[in-house]
Design brief:
about 700 residues; alpha+beta; 23 helices
Length: about 700
């Protein structure tokens, strides 16, 4: 019997079920693809710093996709259950136990979830292999093979979607348990209330405070501000939830100016406040991610020719040991070399820098620094933004606490204890050995930028006296680089010499500590530049993939929204038509109403994106790395492109629904008698309040 009921219900609600089914497929597919990309890329990329960048990118991407996936799956389920809520209520009124109704609901949803998840995983697998094939063609240097998605990716995706399903279904069941039969059947007829006015102002103020806190957190230079983004979303949630309620109340107070002229539109939004609010918040999250994180990331990656070989002073950088002096001398007959005494310097973050004396810095640049004792100058290598002051406190803290020598876990723990204990421990004799006074910190292009961030491979210039003391110890330490060899190749033999030096360094040179915390000791400019251009291309493509996923999710949410509102729009159309409103006016009203939710959320996203953009500029300016014109230009292109696409999608759906509603009419000047009697049984004021 239950099977027959399920089958008949499935056939009668096939249209709604298909929409629910497709939404789950898309959600499962997106979650699987981005989780799979993260795991596969980290399997392929072996370089520590590159893997770290990818891990950050994909962690942020996976976080965004997870949030959007949860919203899409939950909204699709709520829509389907709301379309069936009248049926469930009638089943209960006809004598069916609630337990049986819940079982029916569970079976329907579980079957839909199982099949949609399977199809989503199959589709996701195909897309994942397609992306790998594309990356293999674009970036063969890294993506030299197609990697099979391991079982952990499938298990993770299934567990995640099961968790969402159980949580959403449980919440809906609890909601049904707390409502009587009449409320279930008349759910669509009820006017939804706005939040209580007593809490509005407090909530809006809290939202503003949280947004301000996030704004002040952001300019501090870190790799990714997860906490700032999270706080920003919470703040935006509170402002939208209660701010719109405040705005509606204020509009209603000024009847003569605005309210009476737009009573139908305002009451339509107000009477369905809770449903509209849910949609606004979902669209806001999508627009927030797209117009803040994604747009600024895209603009920072462009142009792709960020790294240019012509901007590098040397063709090769090699950190050698004193024991290799004989081979270094032999290179002087083959090419032009510059030899500088150096020592590795490890900062509190575990990143390694290049330490030289003031005298040799003067030979390279002609600059005199007048350093004394433990004074240092930090010259961050940047081939695109030289001669810019770095004011960010995070950098100053990172470079103030250092030890001379290569990275080691023991020394790292020693430095970490200073950070944890804070200034209370800085006066101890042990701590003073690691503390330096930064006289100046700026960007410069002396040896070239051989890193993708500002935390490593900077030039640390010491006073001659202090450098000489520390260098004596470094020079005598086994496996410590003590010679910085800067090489300019002749074009004819550069590849042969590069291979020769690399081979020698691998066999006889300083060995890399295989703990994932040490930079390279040899860099070939041409290879480095090509690699970074490839990586920039991949990171750009990953952002485009995310943007496409966000746009796809917004399309499905919009589709669910318009399909769920068709019955109410038909009732409204019948009433307005019989009341004498012309077809042109009705169409304009529909278009405004249907686009209002999307435009409100888009406007909120645009507002947040402007604030986020200013925070990014301040952040980058403090780090001395911003080219304001280029960054602004690409940011505007990314934002305007996304806004245009979203507007077209919203406009397209609005026109589609308007055409569908008005196209079903047969005769503009006729009113069906049955509809007239239906309208007469209700007051005009009541109808307007519902509309």
């Amino acid at each position: 019997m239950l099977t027959k009921i399920i089958y008949k219900n499935f056939r009668s609600n096939l249209k709604n079920y298909i929409l629910f089914f497709l939404s789950n497929i898309v959600a499962s597919m997106e979650l699987f693809v981005f989780r799979g990309l993260k795991e596969i890329v980290l399997q392929i990329v072996k370089d520590t710093e590159t893997a770290f960048l990818f891990r950050i990118d994909f962690t942020m991407a996976l976080g965004m996709i997870s949030v959007i996936t949860i919203m899409l799956m939950a909204y699709a389920m709520i829509y389907y259950l709301k379309s069936r809520i009248r049926d469930y209520g009638l089943f209960i009124m006809m004598g069916m136990h609630k337990r049986m109704v819940f079982s029916l609901m569970l079976i329907e949803y579980a079957l839909g979830w199982v099949f949609s998840s399977i199809l989503g995983l199959i589709l996701g697998t195909g897309i994942l292999y397609g992306i790998q094939f594309l990356l293999h063609k674009i970036a063969p240097l890294y993506f030299v093979r197609i990697v099979t998605a391991n079982l952990n990716i499938y298990v993770y995706s299934i567990k995640f979607s099961i968790g969402i399903m159980i949580f959403t279904l449980f919440a809906v069941i609890v909601w049904i348990e707390n409502h009587n039969l009449s409320s279930l059947i008349q759910a669509e007829e009820k006017i939804q209330k706005c939040p209580q006015k007593g809490y509005w102002t407090i909530a809006v103020i809290i939202g503003i405070i949280l947004s301000v806190i996030a704004w002040f957190m952001f300019p501090s230079y870190e790799e990714v501000h997860y906490d700032a983004y999270f706080i920003w979303i919470i703040g935006g949630f509170l402002i939208l939830t209660f701010g719109m309620g405040v705005l509606l109340e204020e509009i209603k107070k000024h009847e003569q100016f605005f309210y009476l002229k737009n009573v139908l539109q305002i009451n339509q939004f107000s009477s369905k406040y809770q449903n509209n609010l849910m949609l606004v918040l979902m669209f806001f999250v999508i627009h927030f991610f797209a117009l803040t994180y994604i747009s600024t990331e895209i603009s920072s990656l462009l142009p792709i020719e960020h790294y240019k070989a012509k901007n590098y002073p040397y063709d090769m950088l090699w950190m050698a040991n004193t024991s290799e002096q004989k081979y270094i001398d032999s290179l002087a007959d083959k090419t032009k070399i510059t030899e500088i005494p150096m020592m590795r310097v490890t900062s509190v973050s575990g990143d390694q820098q290049i330490g030289i004396s003031e005298s040799y810095y003067n030979k390279l640049t002609g600059k005199t620094l007048h350093l004394k004792n433990k004074q240092i100058v930090v010259a961050m290598q940047d081939q695109n933004h030289p001669n810019r002051s770095v004011k960010d406190r995070t950098f100053h803290f990172n470079y103030r606490i250092m030890y001379t020598g290569r990275y080691s876990d023991d020394k790292s723990e020693e430095l970490h204890s200073i950070v944890v204990k804070g200034k209370r421990n800085e006066n101890s004799a042990q701590s003073k050995r690691h503390l330096y006074k930064i006289k100046k910190m700026y960007t410069e292009n002396v040896i070239g930028q051989y890193t993708t961030n500002r935390w490593s491979e900077s030039l640390i210039i010491f006073s001659d006296k202090y450098f000489e003391k520390e260098y004596k110890r470094i020079e005598q330490t086994k496996n410590e680089p003590s010679k910085l060899i800067l090489i300019k190749f002749d074009q004819e033999n550069k590849r042969d010499l590069w291979k020769e030096i690399r081979t020698y360094s691998t066999k006889h040179g300083t060995k890399i500590i295989n703990d994932g915390n040490e930079q390279n000791i040899i860099y070939y400019t041409e290879s480095f530049v090509k690699t970074q251009q490839t990586l920039l291309m991949f990171r750009l493509l990953s952002k485009v993939f995310i943007l496409t996923a966000l746009l796809l999710d917004s399309i499905f949410i919009m589709e669910i929204k318009v399909e769920s509102e068709i019955p109410s729009y038909k009732k409204k159309q019948e009433f307005l038509r019989c009341m004498g409103m012309r077809k042109k006016e009705r169409k304009a009203l529909y278009l405004l109403e249907m686009q209002s939710v999307g435009m409100i959320s888009l406007a909120a996203g645009i507002f947040m994106s402007v604030i986020h953009f200013i925070a990014c500029l301040l952040r980058m300016e403090k780090a001395g790395e911003v080219n304001k014109w280029n960054f602004t230009k690409y940011w505007l292109v990314a934002c305007l492109g996304y806004i245009a696409l979203e507007w077209l999608v919203q406009r397209g759906f609005a026109l589609y629904i308007t055409h569908k509603i008005e196209g079903e009419l047969k005769g503009e000047n006729k009113c069906i008698s049955g509809k007239i009697s239906f309208i007469k049984n209700r007051s005009k004021a009541q109808y307007i309040s519902e509309l």
